[in-house]
Amino acid sequence: MKKLIIILIGFFNIMFIYGQVESRVFPNKDALSKISKAKGINKSPKKEKMPKFNKQTLLDEDEANKGFDIPFRFGKGFDTNITLSDGEWTDVENGRLWSMEFESDSAYSINFVFNDFYLPEGAELYITNKDETMLYGPVTSKQNTENGFFLTDLVQGDNVTIYLFEPADKQGLAKLTVKRVVHAYRNLCSNFIHGNSGNSGICNNDIDSFPEWDLESDAVALVLLQGGNELCSGSLLMTADQSFRPFFLTAFHCIDADLNGSLSNTEKSDAQNWMFKFQYKRSTYTGNSQTSGITYNGAAFRAAWNNSDFALMEMNNSPASDTRFSWLGWDRSGNTPTSGTGIHHPSGDVMKISFEEDSFQVSSWGSTNNHWLLNFNSGVVEHCSSGSPIFNQDRRVVGQLHGNQNYNPNISYCSQTRAEYGRFNLSWTGGGTNDTFNITQSRFRRSFHRNNE
After folding, report:
1. 253-272 tens-digit pLDDT
2. Neighbours of 393 (CB within 10 A)
3. pLDDT score for 191
4. How many of the other CB atoms lie within 10 Å of CB of 313?
């Protein structure tokens, strides 16, 4: 394995980082000072205020839907049609700066869905909150998408401002339409500012308490779905030829919006607009700021099979050049694991880890013996854990989380240790077509795992 590590280091050195955007937290409340182009500009004179709505109605709907196989909803989306002509342009050194403030009373965070999005070379986009504890960006021309659709990360607070710098020699070339503003009515990130757990049950285990799982956790991501207000989980898988193509394993029901057990072209197309958020973990602050997520936009649909709740995407950009990421090995033998570990984002929280000390059982969900059945000894899974990987005793992926078909909405998640994962070995051949098994077996055939052995 030492030889492989040397090869990986060489690979990282010759690659370039494309497509990623960081969100950072600033405990000293000086995020705006990090945007050099906004020097001397404190607040946009243009503001868009979102209408009020009944939060309890949405919470009641969510409670009623907990027993269904649907993604985790955290926010209320307001459809808008705000363009660069609606904000404020200010002349700055070497160009001009567009800004616009957005407010939605009592929102825990705000995020955006952009359309007609294009940044010329040299342009930079940032989003920061009113108390300057969080900064998203820079978004640059490297993050332009083919279809102009773009999802931003969640920015804490009920008042945030978008800043867009356009260089003087590219004036008039930037494009941006704010298609949707999402008000988070669930608190997913406020406690994260202080390095504490967030929205999930107290029985869950923070991943940072288990450093021996660092490499595996570097492959797990929170997935923001196309509407900007729903979440799932998933993970990067390695190919047999160690190509570092960014194949991403998740759950079928995260794509199946109408819950009919099949995927339309529209549903597949919508999934290709997802945002993938890695490194969303509880952190201890040692300096001026701390990364609270690394995001990538866009993917291609590759395969899915309803019987095992399996879906495979391929991200448009690879994080292979960044040593903060890893790819997971897998096992399609079908042998019953003697123990297991799940890494996931329950209820949209920072990353957690759950442990099963006993051998897996099999269960039937829609068809015979198509799932692994676990009863965790430590930690549980929740809504939004959907699509996350389950590892066998050899730390290889053997399935992705479907849920708990015996879920009881009248008791807490922490009182329900049962979890069911679609079996990877059955997903392998699936329905026997290109859309229902893992690409081509020549590319995706044997196990590989990046570790310290």
Report:
1. 999 999 999 999 999 999 99
2. 15
3. 55
4. 26
